[in-house]
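Progress against Task 2.4 (sequence-to-structure conversion) is shown through the following example record, which the project officer requested during the mid-term review.
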Amino acid sequence: MKRFHCDERTGSAAGSRGGRVPEGASDPGLTERQRRELEVVRCMIGIYCRGHHGSKRAELCAECRELADYVAERVARCPMSDSKTFCSSCPIHCYQPAMRERIRAVMRYAGPRMLLVSPIKALAHAVDTLRERTRGGKGRA
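Structure tokens generated for the chain above:
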């Protein structure tokens, strides 16, 4: 299983696959905004996986690992990365319908729990979302 956890001290989502950094986590082509988005989503997937699949604190099951890898790929290939904060505020929906429903379920479950697990990330995400709304973006939390 892929090891994974939200590290509040460093402000990053950490994980490893046999000692390797998860796909997309250290990609030099990612913007700071994309890195933050990936950290928040990976943390949420970890919360969801622990709650629904009984995974241990720092691990993801195969299903959730597949979703995390899919999200990393979508974020890395995003053509709108310079003009939006999160995928929910994007006018282009590049997620496949099934994956979109899976990530929505993750966010519905993990969003409220982020305040307990990773309050700094949750508040930073809320600030980014509010900032996007004031700029006129869709930005659902």
